[in-house]
Protein 1
Amino acid sequence: MKRYALLLLVLLGGTAMAQQKEVTALYEPSSINPYGKANPKAPKALQQFEFLVGTCDCVEQVLQKGEWKTGKMVWTGTYALNGMAIQDKFWNNEFAGTSMRIYDENTDEWRINFFRMPNNTPAEWVGKQDGYRMVLTPAPNAQPNTGTLETVFENITHNGFEWSVAFTSNQNQHTVLWKRSCTKRK
């Protein structure tokens, strides 16, 4: 009887190990799908950020001390968390950043966690689609008390998009601080 119990234990353990080896993240980036795929179980809203999936070459402009500084950057987006979210990475010669974009069906809004190096600048943004634009603001606990910071994606096509960050003071003075125009690589 002990032999049969031991044999059964070995067979069940082997079956469990074989099943464990077969577990794969079907929707993660791979050699077949370098940017991953959307999981069919993902919220339909995931499509709102699918324009980020792929690699773009961008021209960016940053307002520094009243002057516009122009440079180039690369922005790459992939499906992440087994196709349930979108992660984008962007970099230029001065910094690199990444964002994880997850749609919260309970609040009907996007939650974006952003990290930037050097100087580890984390931020949390929330927002929604507004017509043909994606409008994001810092999470309520991160909003400056001197005005409103807003990130906007617009002019979104299959060939690219435009991105900007602007600050509106409590006196309604609106200042664009950062702009990017991104074109998809073919």
Protein 2
Amino acid sequence: MSFKPTIIALALASAALGAAPATAQYGAPPPQQQPQIQPPASTAVPGQRQLNISKRAAKAINELQAAVNANDVANIPARLAAAQAVAQSSEEKFYVAQLQLKAATASKNQAAIAAAIEAMLASGGVEQAHVAPLYLELGDIHHKNKQYAQATAAFERVLALDPRNAQALALLAETRNSQGQPN
């Protein structure tokens, strides 16, 4: 069972930031352009999540976003490390993890996708409605990589949040069966 396209899309869309440059999202002027006037918060687009990114973190996050959007695989690791180092708030950590997930998804690296999902969940910035689906995807990745203890823990987290989740129940049973444990 693979839920990757839906869950990954859900995770990437959860902040509803689209492709707007990070500088526009943080209120800082884009490089080599005139400062843009930001609309008052009351005119924000309904349903769009507004993130509060500090000026201290904005530069590193903007550089990471530019590298991820350009699929600059040579510079993404260094930009990611720099952004993670300056991200302090849960919103900053969440957005960095979201960019990490976007880069990992583009590279189709399952271990990197799992690390990005773990970072998103650890940030505390994931909306409650998205927590169980992210744990479900994380468990599925661990199961496919025969990391049964991690898969079991992820599926149990899903079931703690949603005891009637049939997919998590089935995958947990399959994981335990793979370990030779009773369901």
Protein 3
Amino acid sequence: MERTARVNGAALAGMMMVAMVAAPSVGEANDAVTLEKAAYGPYGAQSLVVANSAGSWRQLMAELEAAGALAITPAPEPPTDVDWSHEVVVLVAAGPTGYDVEVEVTRLSNGRTKVEPKYTRLGNDGGESLPYHLVKLPKTAYLADVVAIGNDVATLLPMVGDMPLPAGPTTWGQLKAAYR
């Protein structure tokens, strides 16, 4: 019986190692820093905005306004808590869909990063809600300026690309992944 317990324990440890190695993502801390998140905002349609500068933000907001995708005008000013030389902002607005939205950033096992919205059904079927989530992330080439409205949002998400390593201590795995 003691031998069986050791074998079963070894088999369990082996299965756990396989599960950890085969996991599709490493799921490290979300690199997104929330700037704004609300159940009711000025974005009257499902929207995606990625802006790399205050000027880009103004231009992309003007495009949303011209397309009738803003419920409140004038368009919001650029966020102030952003170091535009090192950071980019990502806005995902759910519009009147009956869903709340949250921007999630996941580090994948291949060292790349996935930015995607997580939608959660609202208990009141949305009512008058216009939920949105605005985050800032480290600036990277795959997060170029973009605006999308309505069904076009789904064609651009999720966004997957390389993101700089986080500041502070770096694990051997993160370093290897950065050079693959």
